[in-house]
């Protein structure tokens, strides 16, 4: 979902949103709850007929802060800035795996 948001950030600006289907529980200020039909549809990247995601609430609240943090780290990773001092082999394995997974997902989007 984070990649879909990154692909069309203008659709996910809360201050200018006119839809207001923020979350199903109406916990977010101004939320109208669920939309009557799926408003956010993510196509199957393999080209199948069934969408990968259909949502009647905004995708933005579904992505947590730790995910955005990893995406920020990935931008730095692409520029050669690593999480910890040292080289690639000095980085935690989870970090390297996450950077490769995010890179692959972005490239396949």
Could you give the topology of this structure?
Elements: H1 2-7, E1 40-42, E2 53-55, H2 65-78, H3 93-108
Helix pairs in contact: 2-3
Strand content: 5-15%
The tally of helices reads 3
H/E topology pattern? HEEHH
Largest sheet: 2 strands, antiparallel
**Rg over CA atoms:** 17 Å
Distance between the termini: 11 Å
Strand order of the largest sheet: 1-2
Model regions low in confidence, pLDDT < 50 over at least 5 residues: none
| Overall tally of structural domains | 2
Number of strands: 2
| Morphology | elongated
Helix content: 25-40%
Arithmetic mean pLDDT? 93
Structure description:
The protein is elongated. The chain has a two-stranded antiparallel ribbon. The protein has 3 helices and 2 strands. It is 33% helix and 6% strand. The chain has helices at 2-7, 65-78, 93-108; strands spanning 40-42, 53-55. The chain is mostly helical and 109 residues long. It folds into 2 domains: 1-63, no CATH class; 64-109.
